[in-house]
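Below is how a single chain appears once it has passed through the pipeline. First comes the sequence as given, then the structure the pipeline wrote out for it. We keep one example in the README because the format questions we get most often are answered faster by looking than by reading.
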Amino acid sequence: MTGVEGYMYPNEMELQWSILIVLYPFITGLVAGAFILASLERVFLVEAVKPIYRLALLTALAFLIDAPLPLQLHLGHPERSPEMYLTPHPTSAMAMFGYVYLWYLMVVLVFEIWLDYRKDIVIFAQTTKGLKGLIYKFLTMGSYNISPRALAIDNKIGWIITLIGIPSAFFLHGYVGFIFGSIKANPWWSSPLMPVVFIFSAMVSGIAAVMLIYMATCKLRKVAIDVRCVDTIAMYMFYIFIIDFALEMLDLIHRIYESDESFRSLNFMVHTQLYIPHIVIQICLGTVTPLVILFILQVSGKKFAEKVRLRLCTISGALAMIGIFAMRWNVVIGGQLFSKSFLGFTTYKVALVTKEGLIVAVALALLPFLFLWILIKFLPPWEESHHTPAAGD
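Resulting structure:
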């Protein structure tokens, strides 16, 4: 056997899934997490997070618009992607994403945002001139009724849509973990806990993203940050992070206990090629460190000054997002670094200027912030815009 040690099949030398496929589940996770955070105010009546409710919805929409773009660039012929709607394949998990995406985008997220902003849209349509005014008039969909009874109906329907959207958000991102977990030929991916881990890690990253965006927009607008809101967001992130970490450790313990024929190869890979991204970045820097910071914040109460608490929340949120991205990297890239014979290993180097290179990946990661900026220009999410009086009120 020593003569074939390190052997890899020719088709295993080049990775089929690149950094774009790492970016795809990371972005969809931000969508799911942001929507779950918004649902805390609408469905679970957590009043403290009200200042970020609309911002969370717009953040989810901005990232959802961007979500399929990494897949489109990865495809050899992206113009063929509409065929998933024309030739349905219900047995294909990848094809079903098209239906889940369309349902979540058009029925859940866009409809809920429209219902929540309908009063503001009508007021803007009546008071705004030019092209922007025409866009607002189009967004009214011909309905200018903003009476208390009409707004109460909007609120009720919006509550129902949010309730439907919660399992939809789980399904949107859980299916990504399902795809990896169902590939039995790859022991790094094949785990029944994979979809659940993906869902909870998505919630952590989405909550952290909205928290960071909220604090950044407050700084840019030169308004005070609602510390109570940030503290509450950090509390929920801490609780969900604990569950996520416990599930990942449970999966790890199960693999160690099972110790099948692939364990030696996976163990070697974790201690060599994946040591930095998995042990150092994902676990130590991106999981344990933010958990310790969040734990200190929870047990300290109000002992720290507000500025210190906000800085600690910023650090923990940023580290959590780094850790979740590292987790996606380790799953997608790590699962392709070893051979099917468990005897050989390969490496992956990110190209700089290619269709699936680093520049393209960074551009796709920043693109949602452009979408969010455009959405905010048309639909301000700030709390003071909630009670804009209509003319004649």
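The chain has one domain: 16-387.

See the next section for the split statistics.
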